[in-house]
């Protein structure tokens, strides 16, 4: 399958290799949450809700000098259409929950909220590639909406390498093609990388994909 038109250089969805999909964000979408956000990257749609800072529910998990950050990632049963659905709590969901939590901990000023707890819930409503980045972006907006103190805003995007060309912001067809890809999370104002995940990358391809995002 050809992912780039050999004559025009456009991708299957009409984008150039270095074009992102249209993005849209909205905060305050969950009334009973302390902070919430809906984030869209093309046809990928994610909702995030934040509760806290609040009292630690399980005292054995309380941290005296900083806040406890917890994250739960899930995919709605209808999010992937006819594609195989994974049960809640599967290995991939646990991994992505950990990635989101660690990425958010890099920007949350947890030392300002000792002996407290912040819960982040992220759910994919519609999946069309780039779900990990969309979840991070949604979680960041939800934390900001909740007024949680942060040193900077995390932004995230993915890139891949198909048809000997680096492509920015992969959709599902491109993401499932089996090529190498990378997901990056960045603290823009601080000029720091908080997340760097690579998959099936040789060094040259990784360098091309990362430079495309940055």
From TrEMBL:
The keyword Magnesium is annotated on this UniProt entry: no
Keyword Nuclease: no
Assigned GO CC terms: cytoplasmic exosome (RNase complex); nuclear exosome (RNase complex); nucleolus
UniProt cross-references to Pfam families, sorted A to Z: RNase_PH, RNase_PH_C
Signal peptide positions on this chain: none
Biological process, per Gene Ontology: nuclear mRNA surveillance; poly(A)-dependent snoRNA 3'-end processing; rRNA catabolic process; U4 snRNA 3'-end processing
Residue stretches making up the Exoribonuclease phosphorolytic domain: 20-149, 152-199
Subcellular location: Cytoplasm; Nucleus, Nucleolus
CDD domains assigned: RNase_PH_RRP41
Protein name (database record): 3' exoribonuclease family, domain 2
Organism: Musa troglodytarum (fe'i banana)
